[in-house]
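hi! just following up on the protien thing from before. the input was this:
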Amino acid sequence: MDDTVYIIALGGLVHDIGKFMQRAELENDFAAIREYYGEFCPLSPTKTFTHLHAAYSAFFIENFIPNGLFDKTELYNAARHHKNPVDDIYKVADIISAGMDRYDNEIENESYKKVRLCSIFDFIELQYSILDKAKNINPRWFYSLQPLQQKDISSVYPFFREKKEYEISNSNEYENQYRYLWTEFKRELDSIKHNNNPRLYFNELYGLLEKYTWCIPSATNAFPDISLFDHMKTTAAIATALYHYNQAQKTDEKEFIIYAGDISGIQDYIFRISHAQGIGGVAKRLRGRSFFINMLSEVLTRYILEDLGYTHANINFCGGGNFELLLANTPASEKFLTDFEKKLNTWLLNNFQGELGFISVAHKFSSKELERYYTKCKSIIDENINSAKLKKFENIIENPHFWVDSSEKNGHIRICPSCGIKVVKHRDEICESCKLDKKIGSALPTSSYISFRIGNIEAPEYALVSLDFGTFGAVDLIGNVNNDTTLWNIAKNSTNLYGLSPMASHVKARYPIATTLPYAIEAIEDLPSEKDEEGDTTVYPNQTLSFTTLAAISQGDKRIGILKMDVDNLGLIFAQGFPSTLSKALISISRIATLSRSLSIFFTNIIDYICDKIFKEWKEKTEWAHKEKISNIFYLTFSGGDDLLIVGPWDQIIELARRIRREFKRFTCENPNLSISAGIYICKPKYPVYMAVKKADEALHQSKAKGKNRITVMGETLVWDEEDPHSRIFQDALKVQFASFTNAEIREENIFLKGLIREKIQKTLTFEELINFGNKLLRDYEAKKISRKFIHRLLEAKEIFFQTVYNDLAQREEEDHNYMFIPYLLYSIERNVKIDEKADWKRILITEGNAERYVRQAKFPCKYALMKTRN
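and the predicted 3d structure came back as:
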């Protein structure tokens, strides 16, 4: 790649770094900053310097970026963007990124230092308006000035403040926070100043800027919801694209291309492992296969960027088999992208026998469209992607290798018994891909670093395992190397090097990935649930636990749970989720980048945190003998973008779903427009994983079909819970428009009763209430206050008195209510509840008027209690 690209990208990345420095009051430490005013700061009509942060940016370039590494002339030009002509690429990139066509100066007084970054989730608006009568947003959730930490995730949560102002009131607080943030940033910046490789320096600085400027508002004289990092990152991407566009001397008025790619068939491929405890054990290979596929899309984006001459700042999104890149509209780009899809599909066909396919869309648009209508461009891309999915393999269907003529094959065709895809020589042999899955699964727990390679670069000596993607590149998982010299040698021979674990402190750039995996920290001997094909029952250090072991540590019934979750209405959120009454500039590319990055943090850092927290709570109350010898109880198959799939003990999986939903609502400012849905399937550990995941997927679809913001478990679909007191539905200015929210969204379900023509509204209980009811059944049974038969009687009452039948004539499901359930319940209480507790149970089920709800929805809480008490 041309080094000029790194200079252009770095210029965009640091063009506004001066805002960070100015707010930290560094002019008191570095008086020389004033000397830069004349060259870098424009003059106001009153002949005073404005946009002083430009001088700070220039001072940063001069004093904190190593000499001899980059041509600083170009970097100074980036810092000078406020004074540059209108066609300057940094000036244009800055305008497009911010979504503004003018340069307002920040107010030159202390107030701009007090402004805190608003959470972008606070004003997402879909079916429920969050604007008051005066069309004001009134933000209430803000971020503290804290570095983005891998272990301590408290900083990534917004804090709630009822006041409408963006500013904090304590002057010492804002001064100390910016000063602390800069001091920590400077300390880590000093540790990379001896790096003499432009590519690696850019990568490391990019990581540090994300860590320390993610929480800083880019602009304090406008709505402060875009982080400084996302503004600088998108400015770098746009400037690089404009550089390529100008170099190509294009006359097309549309300067840019958004290139979106989608790898289809991922889920089917990952879960094609056909034997739940087959050769090698599915648990030892499933995570490896998921990681391999996740890396495939990452490698492809880096291959495209490397070949066309861009940095990873031009990745708008990458995860879950999808990616989106911002490129220049040049002849070179068009030709490369056309050839790329065909080349990739040929490789996928040869290596995955049609299980995986690739489709892509290249959408051209102008600067003005990117500045003002980015979400509209994304909507067009999504529509084109969906259309392209109907024509998968179109560009290689005439390839003679696409069709296999079995008559030309001699002898028997032997298929890998694990994946059922690859051809093998011997019947009991597994293919190389499945062997690699197992190696990856074993290496992930002990990997501290990850490197990406493109071209003919050999794998580093310290690689635990290498993933080869042919001509597109390779990925290496590297152990805990603590020697700086060794690490930099690895880095120099790779395209990019990132830290994976908190132990990887020698590399500043971090690769975001959820890593929760249940493995043995030390050897566990004579564990029957881990018996392999040779009869060995020992679990060795770093060996992934089997699904049988995860089932064995469940309370009561020995089963596993498969949890699938994803964010509701995500496409609509990106396309239409910002208040239409505000300026169209609200939907700039940097705003979308902030939203995308924030969601990514939740599905990587926070998901790991929640899994670890529940695991620690489980250890405190369980009596399982080996609890101190394992890393976790959850098997995170994948988590990224907006969805996840996790396997674990069935009872803890239910608790995990509950906690993830709670944390998601807190993370997204308790906004009623933002929700997440879940599906759980509970099964025996040797049930084929492909079918189990399919069942969990069906449960998730059931949650979506019945209104979203729901969980489907044990066949029952339930609304999660009441809204939190901090929700906007309780905000004084919005109470009128949210008056019917609780009933319509939480407390009511429309059903058809037998014999009625129209639907009838039924009052319902939430998942939270029903799981609490299930836990009461459990506690009372364990305390011998009720008999197990009482729980069975409640379940039978549901089946007897609230039957669901399908009406063929009306083509709908109908409920047949029989109100004889009340004497039935009274009889059950008299026969199966201790004398001292009868009054309490009559109150709960009869006198408080909840009998119909509890009986009608008895399936989940009763099964939950029965499964937990089963020996």
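The mean pLDDT is 87.
The chain is about 40% helix and 15% strand.
cheers
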